[in-house]
Design brief:
21-stranded mixed beta sheet, 5-stranded antiparallel beta sheet, mainly beta
Length: about 450
């Protein structure tokens, strides 16, 4: 429902307007001004006197979210009481804006804010945010600042939050403290601040399809070049990961993103460190800092690998840090490990062992905790290959017991082999099926070497 009333006398116009919506929102306007007539038409000169009074009650802010961002939900109520005096060219604006029951939900991060309040006042060309508070579970976000309109518009906003659940997804949870400043002027936007992670969980999962090396080119296909995304603001934000950011993997994934066709799962670690994000308008984000992997382990084919060293160094593009990671499997007879070093977009992977053995043997110890031909056959099978006409697969049942099943290419030779460690020196192997055998292995030391 809308209604308008207007009267004109001696070049003076007075008008009233009322708007009522079905959701209960209302807007009332009262206007008084003076018009002038020139040779062509009636006009309102900039120096004409102005008296304006506007009051309103907005019962729903559902329309606001899609205007700001497609995955943003906003709700709440607003009350407006605004007045303007002076003339059209230089009005003196005053008034207040009050908000209650404000709620914000960002669907992409599943973060929810509720019970928000807003208190702002208008003074001339300035909108002053006296107080904005909104709850996020046990957390609280506050903001204050001012915005200037007119010939030289700008904005200055300070925000601070404690115990904010910024992300609450199945694959990522973040509870943070933060503080910062946002400034907008004719030069653009500038964001500075600090984010402190109190608690967090990052779940690494999903399958990664094998990908071609970056130096492989397919004939007739135009290479795709991934451009670094330019930043739309000046950025200086310090991210502190704290001491309680857990990382784990609950789904099977392929080792090194498909470079090795070995199914892995059960990655667990805690990461800590600080990374400073720096950026200039029109340029990609740069980073400086270090992330450390603490108490890390990785499971492959039932074997537990301990991450002995895990450093991720940032000193340039955010998406291409320097890796320095080693993971080891320690047995009484052998220590086998894998190191990943160099840029994240082109890492170098190396197997090592103590004592030193061929790479195939190193990988066998790394994945199965055992060297030797029978396990090599299982290892070949586990990677989806055939070796010597033999199909086999193996499982690690515990730290000291593993089992492998082998079938000949013709299907006539079948047997199951069990491997177990009796103690640090003595191990046993038992095969049953078309071939039956029992073997004992004893490791002894000569001259300090095994």
């Amino acid at each position: 429902h809308a209604s308008v009333e207007a009267t004109a006398k001696n070049n003076r116009i007075e008008a009233k307007a009322e708007l009522r919506l079905k959701n209960g929102s209302t807007l009332n306007l009262q206007l008084a001004t003076q018009v002038a007539r020139d040779a062509q038409a009636w006009t309102i000169p900039g120096v004409s006197p102005l008296t304006l009074k506007a009051t309103g009650h907005v019962t729903s802010l559902d329309w606001l979210g899609p205007l700001l961002q497609k995955d943003l939900d906003v709700n709440g109520r607003l009350d407006l009481d605004i007045a303007a005096q002076g003339n059209w060219k230089q009005p003196r604006v005053s008034g207040r804006i009050q908000g209650q029951d404000i709620g914000i939900r960002l669907l992409s991060s599943n973060s929810n804010f509720s019970n928000g309040t807003l208190h702002a006042r208008l003074e001339g060309e300035q909108i002053i945010l006296e107080k904005f508070e909104i709850r996020n579970g046990a957390g609280l976000l506050k903001a204050e600042g001012r915005a200037r309109v007119g010939e030289h518009p700008d904005l200055k906003l300070h925000f601070q939050g404690e115990n904010l659940a910024l992300v609450e997804r199945k694959d990522l949870e973040l509870d943070t403290n933060l503080a910062g400043d946002l400034q907008l002027d004719k030069q653009g936007a500038t964001l500075t601040g600090k984010v402190m992670v109190n608690r967090g969980l990052l779940v690494l999962g999903g399958s990664y399809a094998p990908t071609l090396s970056t130096d492989v080119r397919i004939k007739g296909q135009t290479p795709k070049v991934r451009a670094e995304q330019a930043l739309g603001l000046t950025l200086d934000v310090l991210v502190d990961l704290g001491n309680d950011l857990q990382v784990r993997s609950s789904e099977k994934s392929q080792l090194l993103g498909g470079r090795l066709p070995i199914q892995t799962s059960g990655y667990r670690s805690r990461i800590t460190g600080q990374v400073r994000l720096l950026g200039e308008r029109g340029k990609p984000v740069k980073s400086k800092g270090e992330i450390r992997i603490v108490d890390g382990s990785y499971s492959m084919l039932g074997q537990r690998l301990n991450i002995e060293r895990g450093n991720i160094l940032f000193d340039g593009p955010l998406q291409n840090p320097i890796l320095d990671i080693t993971a080891e499997r320690k047995r009484p007879q052998m220590t086998a490990g894998m190191s990943i070093t160099g840029p994240a977009q082109n890492p170098r992977v190396r197997l090592y062992s103590d004592p030193d053995v061929p790479d195939q043997e190193k990988l066998s110890w790394l994945l199965f905790g055992r060297g030797g031909q029978p396990v090599d056959s299982s290892l070949t099978s586990a990677t989806g290959s055939l070796a010597g006409g033999l199909t086999s697969f193996g499982f690690q049942l515990s730290d000291k017991l593993s089992v492998a099943y082998e079938q000949g290419a013709t299907g006539t030779d079948n047997f199951v082999t069990f491997y177990t460690d009796i103690n640090d020196r003595l191990s046993a192997e038992a095969s049953a099926g078309d071939k039956t055998a029992v073997r004992l292995f004893y490791t002894f030391i000569l001259g300090g070497s095994k």
